[in-house]
Amino acid sequence: QQQLVESGGGLVQPGGSLRLSCAASGFTFSPYTMRWYRQAPGKARELVASISSVGGTTIYLDSMKGRFTISRDNAKNMTYLQMNSLKPEDTGVYYCNRIPALFPWGQGTRVTVSS
Predict the structure, then answer these.
(1) To the nearest 10°, the Cα dihedral for 73, 51, 56, 10?
(2) CA dist., res. 39 & res. 91, Å (int)
(3) Closest by alpha carbon to 18, among 35, 36, 33, 42?
(4) 9 vs 98: CA distance, rounded Å
(5) Phi and psi for 37 in degrees, rounded to 5?
(6) Residue among 106, 113, 98, 34 at smallest CA distance from 70
(7) For residue 115, pLDDT beyond 90
């Protein structure tokens, strides 16, 4: 069964950090570009960051540049999102997916940034 499982979310104060993880299974992971998405309350899902198959190219939403870092470990079939200097507007459910997308999406991991 092909699936992606996100973890690592939680409640954090503004200015804090979290590291999200995405475990891939059931398919050959390394050839795929991987992406992190966020769905804020009441809003559509949006792309946060993207990383190429060998990790040489990364892309970030402008508001995340300098604060978030996407990485991957092809030997472990894992994708990560290191989030620093978190802001309340970073609150939402974070999902990972590959390109082309895998359906259904994972359950996501919830991040709440609040004092």
Answers:
(1) -50
(2) 8
(3) 36
(4) 20
(5) -125, 160
(6) 34
(7) yes
What is the tens place of the pLDDT at every residue in 6-62? 999 999 999 999 999 999 999 999 999 999 999 999 999 999 999 999 877 888 888
> Which amino acid is residue 28, in one-letter code?
T
Length of the chain: 115
Nearest-Å Rg of the Cα atoms of the chain is 13
The CA-to-CA distance between both ends of the chain, in Å, stands at: 40
Residue 105 DSSP one-character state: -
For residues 9 and 11, what is the distance between their CA atoms, to the nearest angstrom? 7
* Peptide bond between residue 88 and the one before it cis (omega within 30 degrees of 0): no
